[in-house]
Design a protein that fits this description.
Layout: H1 2-18, H2 25-36, H3 40-52, H4 60-72, H5 76-88, H6 96-108, H7 112-124, H8 132-143, H9 148-158, H10 163-175
Helix pairs in contact: 2-3, 3-4, 4-5, 5-6, 6-7, 7-8, 8-9, 8-10
């Protein structure tokens, strides 16, 4: 399945954007200190250290704890990564509905990765009922931000839709207004 490869590429891209290459114990403690004081960036970095065992013992449950703290403060990256934790059952029980919740939060704030993942979930009925119009809408929004994977997937979904359905998806995408991050 071509789209599964796209998901793997997306996850790898998010990992490279967030995960420190080789955090040492001092760096982890620096993240922890700032994370405990409420730094969203450091909460996300500390979570990624726990998720991948960089500078600490790998602990998916602790990763989820820190991703959640940052995600609840509207960190789009943390929302996406928390969504992946729920989608893949890492540190929490697999829960596609909860994954959708976090992908949607990122998507509604204009995050192109969140928009792509929400489109993917609508395309395949993962955590939501399959809906090509909604899938195409979210792929449109991500593609409008030059997200190449979304452009390709939008074209694939478009082949399964009527002209009227595509027009509706395009209308919905035009009317979309991202929420402002607090």
């Amino acid at each position: 399945m071509k789209t599964l490869g796209n998901l793997v590429a997306l996850a790898a891209m998010l990992l490279l954007a967030v995960c420190p290459q080789a955090a040492d114990k001092a760096q982890v403690e620096s993240y922890r200190k700032a994370a405990e004081q409420g730094s969203i960036f450091d909460q996300t970095m500390l979570a990624s250290c726990y998720e991948y065992g960089n500078g600490v013992t790998k602990d998916a449950t602790e990763a989820v704890k820190w991703y959640r703290k940052a995600a609840e403060k509207s960190s789009q990256t943390a929302q996406m990564l928390l969504g992946f934790c729920y989608k893949n059952g890492e540190g929490v029980a697999t829960n596609e509905v909860e994954a959708i919740k976090w992908f949607r939060k990122a998507a509604e704030h204009g995050d192109q990765s969140g928009q792509y993942m929400l489109g993917f979930c609508y395309q395949y009925g993962k955590g939501v009922q399959s809906n090509y119009v909604e899938a195409h809408k979210w792929f449109n929004l991500a593609a409008d931000q030059d997200y190449e994977i979304a452009k390709k997937t939008r074209a694939e979904v478009g082949q399964l839709m009527t002209k009227e359905q595509i027009a509706e998806a395009q209308r919905l995408a035009r009317e979309f207004k991202p929420q402002k991050t607090p």
